[in-house]
Amino acid sequence: MDAYDAKTGKYVRVSSEDYKGKWLVVCFYPADFTFVCPTEIAAMNAKYDELQKMGVEVLAVSTDTKFSHKRFAETEPLLKDLKLTIGADPTGEVSRKFGVLIEEEGLALRGRFLINPDGVVVAEEVQGPSVGRNVNEFIRQIQAWQHVYKTGEVCPANWRPGKKTLPVNTDIEKMTGRVGDYVTIEELLS
């Protein structure tokens, strides 16, 4: 799809091939020049360097054109120093493929997808237009997915780096119905 690369100020073409073998976050949002959307883009942009250090690429997408994206990035104060690439999906083709297109409006829901280096969607969050998503929680999820991908271990609720994982090489008969023998609610909530 066509896109606006805010880092370079240039229009570019992006393809799934560009992200092969990489962690990728695809963030759909309803539209440029709205109210919640620039807050989400700005929050993701504020964490861009951290995401890059984690080996994660970010592609924001709406059904606006690349021209709208450029003007939006140039005029919205929250998007000053924007580093993200914003994909243009005016036909809704990509939004439709990800299942986030509101057909009657031609706009995307707030859909965020984490794709692992094998090209598999391992996490997704989709919600309506009125509430923004939490980028800090999403980074925690990325850390957990990267840990799982690297180690083959599994992460319980609220897992953060350095916290206890669940044993995967345990006798499943012994563990079934006994997860509380391995992790406590206090550990989960700490």
Key features?
elongated, 30% helix, 190 residues, two-stranded antiparallel sheet, 7 helices, alpha+beta, seven-stranded mixed β-sheet, 22% strand
Topology:
Elements lengths: L1 E4 L4 E4 L9 E6 L8 H10 L1 H6 L2 E7 L3 H10 L9 E4 L4 H5 L3 E2 L4 E2 L1 E6 L5 E7 L7 H17 L20 H4 L9 H5 L1
Parallel strand pairs: 3-4, 4-5
Antiparallel strand pairs: 1-2, 1-5, 3-8, 6-7, 8-9
Task: Please provide a written account of the structure.
This protein is α+β, with helices and mostly antiparallel strands and 190 residues long. 30% of the residues lie in helices and 22% in strands. The chain is built from seven helices and nine strands. The chain has a seven-stranded mixed β-sheet. It has a two-stranded antiparallel sheet with strand order 6-7. The model has no long low-confidence stretch (mean pLDDT 95).
Summarize the structure.
With 190 residues, the chain is an alpha+beta fold. Helices cover 30% and strands 22% of the residues.
Mean pLDDT: 95
Report the structural category: alpha+beta
Based on Cα principal axes, name the global outline. elongated
What is the spatial order of strands in the main beta sheet? 2-1-5-4-3-8-9
Report the order of strands and helices. Answer: EEEHHEHEHEEEEHHH
Uncertain segments are none
Number of strands: 9
**Rg over CA atoms:** 19 Å
Q: State the distance separating the first and last CA atoms.
A: 43 Å
Largest sheet: 7 strands, mixed
Number of helices: 7
Helix percent band = 25-40%
Approximately what portion of the residues adopt beta-strand conformation? 15-25%
